[in-house]
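[stage:ingest] chain + small molecule (N-oxalylglycine)
[stage:ingest] validated
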Amino acid sequence: MFNSATVFDTSKGTSKTFSVPVDQELASQHLHSLPQRYIRSEKERPSACPTSHLDIPIIDMDMFWGESDFCRQKEMEKLGIACQQCGFFQAVNHGIPLPLLDRMKGIMRDFFQSPLEEKLKYEVQERDGYGQAFIASDDQKLDWADRLFLTISPPENRKMKFWPSKPVDFRETVDQYTVEVEKLGNTVLSLLSENVGLTPDCFINMFGKVSQTMRMNYYPPCPRPDLVFGLSPHSDATILTMLLQDDETVGLQICKDGKWIPVQPIPGALVISIGDMLEVTSNGIYKSIEHRAVTSTDRDRISIACFTVQVRKQKWVLLLSS
Ligand code: OGA
Ligand code: NI
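[stage:predict] done
[stage:export] tokens:
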């Protein structure tokens, strides 16, 4: 029931292993009370924070590729406001084939439903692999979720020993999705460049070499969603994050004006958000917003997050090491 998370401490150059439960196994025991390691302090609990019924903006990507300058301009304004005020939007008609999105969810479900011994073949080491994420000490509070984390691009950085060989189409499907998600990320970055009066390729050139990672998040049903987090509040240390979320179960919430807004699933849409690196590069014009995931009593939930991050420049590494 336990798996070990090995974490690499970059400051000391050492690694440490922690023993953490596999939440899917814990959930399958239908516990009536939760282990203390999951229960948040009273102030922190999801049930203690106000929620709002607003929706996050929806951007129709077709408008950018269509014939009408007027519609393009209108959608551009909506996109700018979304990323400057909310940091999040739902992209529809984004160009990634819908059957590919369904296949991604299918392979993810197949993997998480496979026997524990099979999943533990890909047990997390440092960062990539299967298990709990963000483990830094033995007494920290744990999130109610299991994950599979993979480096997906550039292909030479992939650590194939963490890529499941079952289901048989797992690798090929992730490979196809990587190409599509990268294309969409570049489109969004060029639109956001244009939106602040820069040439479309300005952000892409400024970031230079980027890498993509993917986290498949599996949130089992939880007996007490009011006491725990599926994913603790955080902002993403990325340029952009593109999230494919469950069509049925609501779980993602973003923080706006001190209130938590649930992101209602729109089948076929992708949730795109600004990360810290783009907030900094845009001098704070675009906002990287705090968000979290909550759980449900009777339903599990899946999400697939793709993160675009800047690869450290050679010059920067040299400066630090001299
Ligand atoms: C993440 C994230 C939200 C979700 O993986 O960084 O914010 O709904 N995920 O799973
Ligand atoms: Ni996130």
